[in-house]
């Protein structure tokens, strides 16, 4: 049996997919989680073979969950999303994700991807892969992306500085560079710009 952990903050989608996967003869759903923090805790407790993670969850997103879990235990992660943006795909693959597919796929296709990934393979949806190859590259440094992530919910410069263990002046310098590179006038516009392209 392939032991699977499901994480999705939308209860109806989570329970429906769990019910459909339980009909598969070789898949056992061992946990259903409503957010990223719960997914990490349950994955560490249960050591599932595969974690099927929604990208858009409150707190930790699916890629962040995958990065934490794969560093700690020998599990394989698949990220599913409504908005399969190319930048997100690159971030997911860099975090050790083994599968990436849109939520528009049927439960039978999801089961096939789970089997492939559990067997040691990888799967990236072909349309997402094609988009990723033609997408513009991110001009921001990793540290600049960290600053945008840390301030994506409107945090102050001081709060961002504390969360990244940097000086407020350093944060202001990074923000100035970000605004210049993206040709926008506010940090909120920069966050939206980066989110739309899947860079954060």
UniProtKB/TrEMBL annotation:
Keyword Oxidoreductase: no
Gene3D superfamilies: 3.40.50.2300
SUPFAM superfamilies attached to this UniProt entry: C-terminal effector domain of the bipartite response regulators (SSF46894), CheY-like (SSF52172)
Domain HTH luxR-type: 133-198
Keyword DNA-binding appears in the UniProt entry: yes
Pfam family, one: GerE
Domain Response regulatory span(s) in chain numbering: 3-118
Domain of life: Bacteria
Residue stretches spanning the membrane: none
PROSITE patterns linked: HTH_LUXR_1 (PS00622), HTH_LUXR_2 (PS50043), RESPONSE_REGULATORY (PS50110)
Swiss-Prot/TrEMBL keywords: DNA-binding, Phosphoprotein
Residue numbers of 4-aspartylphosphate PTMs: 54
Name the UniProt record assigns to this protein: Response regulator transcription factor
Native species: Microbacterium salsuginis
């Amino acid at each position: 049996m392939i032991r699977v952990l499901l994480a999705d903050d939308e209860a109806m989608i989570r329970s429906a997919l769990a019910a459909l996967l339980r009909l598969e003869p070789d898949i056992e759903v061992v946990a259903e989680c409503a957010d990223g923090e719960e997914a990490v805790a349950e994955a560490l407790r249960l050591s599932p073979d595969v974690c099927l993670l929604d990208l858009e969850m409150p707190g930790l997103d699916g890629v962040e969950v995958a990065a934490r879990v794969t560093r700690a235990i020998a599990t394989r992660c698949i990220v599913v999303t409504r908005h399969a943006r190319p930048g997100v795909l690159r971030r997911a693959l860099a975090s050790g994700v083994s599968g990436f597919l849109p939520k528009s796929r049927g439960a039978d296709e999801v089961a096939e991807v789970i089997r492939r990934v559990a067997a040691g393979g990888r799967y990236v949806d072909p349309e997402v892969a094609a988009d990723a190859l033609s997408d513009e590259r991110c001009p921001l440094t990793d540290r600049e992306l960290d600053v945008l992530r840390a301030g994506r919910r409107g945090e102050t410069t001081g709060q961002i500085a504390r969360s990244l263990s940097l000086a407020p002046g350093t944060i202001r310098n990074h923000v100035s560079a970000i605004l210049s590179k993206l040709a926008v006038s506010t940090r909120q516009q920069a966050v939206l710009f980066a989110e739309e392209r899947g860079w954060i």
